Amino acid sequence: xxxxxxxxxxxxxxxxxxxxxxxxxxxxxxxxxxxxxxxxxxxxxxxxxxxxxxxxxxxxxxxxxxxxxxxxxxxxxxxxxx
Length: 82
Hints:
By secondary structure, this protein is an all-alpha fold. The chain has helices spanning 9-15, 17-23, 29-53, 59-66.
């Protein structure tokens, strides 16, 4: 299979990024950076997951792509096949 395993969920979320930025327009810069950073990490995580599920990338490439995301910093790895 190539692409679409999650029906391009990451792309639909990207569509709402401007709405999130507009919502945060009156907030302080630190909060804006935090919220948008997490939002972008979620998009990047879902993009990598969808590609892995669609066999566009393998397990190792998936882990490489998500290892530095804020939302995955507590993940210490995993046993192969689990």
